[in-house]
Amino acid sequence: MSDECKNKNLRNVHLGDLLIHGLISAFITLVMFALTPGGPLSTLKLGRFPLVFALNFAPIFIFSVLLEGLLGRIRPAIIVNAVFYMGLFVIHRTKVMYRNAPFVFSDFKLGLEGANMLKQSYYPDRYALIILGGGLLFTVLAAKFLKKPKIKFRQRLWMVLAALMAAALLFGSVYVQDRLYYSLPVAGNPYNILSHFNSKGFNYTFLYRIKDVFVKAPQDYDREEIQKYDEEDRSQELATLRNREKPNIIWIMGEAFTDLSQNSAFSFEPGFDPNENFKRLQGTSILSGRIVTPSFGGGTGDTEFDVLTGTLTTDVSINGYESFNAIKREIDSLPRFLDDIGYQTRAFHPGYEWFYRRNEVYGKMGFQEMYFLEDIENPEIRGEYVSEKQFTDLLIERFEADLEKSEAPLFDYAVDIQNHGPYTYDKYQESYPYHSKYKLSHDAANMFGSYFMGVKDIDRMLGRVYEMMMSKREPIVLVFYGDHLPSLGSEPSAYEEIKKELSWEDLEGEIEYYSTPFMVLANESGRAYLQRENTELNHGAVISSNYLASTVLDLLGYTQGDPFFGYNSELRKKLPVISRHFIYDGKDAYHRTEGDTESPEIYHHYRKYEYYRIND
Q: What is the pLDDT of residue 112?
């Protein structure tokens, strides 16, 4: 066919094209509001809704026009636009349900990891699937009536340029402006990022928050000033620690382990208490209490990060989540320090080595050896993950083997993952027996039954490790804690059905929302190495997870060997809790950005040291 004939089949852009893009984009925007995790009415109830609608509509409209310019036809443009945005809204909603965190720009890098995780653990959100299916069906049916010739190349080029220019102009002059963003009303806690997403719409809040993907140095940060702290001469202290006899350390983080079963809403028949071993061992522990973690319902890596580095995910990572992404080079941390003073440092995670980049990150934190799912012959799966029994068998077998042959003391760090959610009946094909004083919905009853099943398996693991430890003559210290509370549904959640209100309104609520139990144990010979008087903490103490390492180092008398952990130990006495939204100085609690005491200045200095330690 000649070029002249081809050109006859091409058309010009009409005003009707823009009208179609506008109507479909408005529909997609309404789908976004319908998929809002806080409920579709969370934005509609607020004033200034027309402005919020326009701010969320504009990116969808511009992208639709851009796609028509790139593809040349309106039909595929509106379908691709709908698939992209509606899929993004469902992903955001799903992440909120599983992680209590919004989808942010840096998450695009984790697409493969997220897809693989969902294949193993995703429980369908029927409401979202219905809205998604209905939205896409409507778009496809509408597109059937839009069979139009291809647009002329020159006009396609103008469409692309106009869309890109409009996007750049709006982004720089509107979407990143603080004044507009903070002038819009927020339903719920204004300090909670999810309240902003729910109230101002996903598109607008997502674009405004893009600037947060860069971790900025704290105000007045002076590298040379902070570097002096980290370069203090500790050679004499390190030499003393290297030559000292040291106990072996087993350090275990239990997936979603909590003492939720001890809530007054539940009771169990004799012999069926899910926390039986845990409660027994609490009574013999050197120290026990609660750590305030950075995440809820997910984010195991964030709690790992806080504990192992002594820094806060909320301060040094992109968007305050996915902290392992902040580790780009070798950093100082608990395993690196223990390596420096003579420990054989090993990490055991029975999940895929690529998840959260642990195969890279563990090495950068100083672990000499790593053991993952890929290293396990014939993995035994329970609840879609390596079983607690096999995890315990491998942990004990490997520890006992190296205990006999290794001349160096062992630091065995392990993360069990069997009790990863979601907690449906299908997870174990059975429900743990319990009684509730409240009448529970079918879904809530199954969630608790499934969750307690996993907690009981962790409790058995804890009992077996403790028995092994007590049977050894070699000194052994055991550190155990949970990484976060489980996610138990939403709107309403299973927590609400047992009258357990989770909120961020004050520090007490935040501790309830984010804290998990911890304890430090030792066998008979190991107790001689723990000096209880070295820490100010009493049983039942509540501290942030970033203080757990310095607390254990204090008990062992090691803190003087590392300047940051020494600093961390002193900070713990002044600011025992730095949660996601609040700071507690032992007397008063206030939001991180507020306060009329010297604590904001102390916290600000700590942020500088954190930034130097991880990001500089």
A: 46
What average pLDDT does this structure show over 243-255?
Answer: 97
Q: What's the average model confidence in pLDDT over 533-546? A: 96
Query: Does residue 434 contact residue 448 with C-beta atoms inside 8 Å?
Result: yes
Q: Whole-model pTM above 0.85?
A: no
pLDDT, tens digit, 9 for 90 and up, residues 298-351: 889 999 999 999 999 999 987 777 788 889 899 999 999 999 999 999 999 999
State yes or no: pLDDT of 267 exceeds 90: yes
Bridging pattern class, strands 582-584 and 541-544: unpaired
Beta bridge partners of 416: 254
Question: Which of 106, 93, 124 lies closest to 202 in space, CA to CA?
Answer: 93
Instruction: Quote the DSSP letter at residue 409.
Output: P
Are 296 and 100 in contact by the 8 Å Cβ rule? The answer is yes
DSSP state at residue 341? T
| SS3 of 102-145 | CCCHHHHHHHHHHHHHHHHHCCCCHHHHHHHHHHHHHHHHHHHC
Residue 381, number of CB atoms within 10 A of its CB: 11
Q: Phi/psi at 413 (nearest 5 deg)?
A: -100, 130
Distance of alpha carbon 258 from alpha carbon 451, whole angstroms? 10
Q: Is 304 in a helix, a strand, or coil?
A: helix
**What mean pLDDT value characterizes the chain?**
89
Mark 549-573 as b/e (b = at least 16 C-beta within 10 Å). Answer: bbbbbbbbbbbbbbbbbbbbbebbe
Cα 153 to the center of its chain, rounded Å: 46
Report the alpha-carbon distance of residue 418 to residue 412 in Å, rounded. Answer: 19
Residue type, 317: S
Beta bridge partners of 62: none
Who wins on pLDDT, 226 or 194? 226
Token digits for 532? 């209880």
pLDDT at 124 over 70: no
CA–CA distance, 408 with 414 (Å, rounded to integer): 18
Q: CA distances (Å), 561 to each of 5, 94, 248, 366, 549, in order?
A: 81, 44, 18, 16, 13
Alpha helices in 209-259 (DSSP H): 223-230, 235-243
**Alpha-carbon span 514 to 292, nearest angstrom:** 5
- Report which of residues 410 and 581 the model is more confident about: 410
Count the Cβ atoms, other than its own, within 10 Å of residue 529. Answer: 21
Residue 66 has pLDDT above 60, yes or no: yes
Cα 22 from chain centroid? Answer: 37
Q: Hey, CA dihedral for 491, 494, 495, 497, is it positive or negative? A: positive
Q: What is the pLDDT of residues 165-174, one digit of tens each?
A: 999 999 999 9
Tokens of 333: 């941390």
Distance separating alpha carbons of residues 195 and 10, to the nearest angstrom = 48
DSSP bridge pairs for 385 = 382
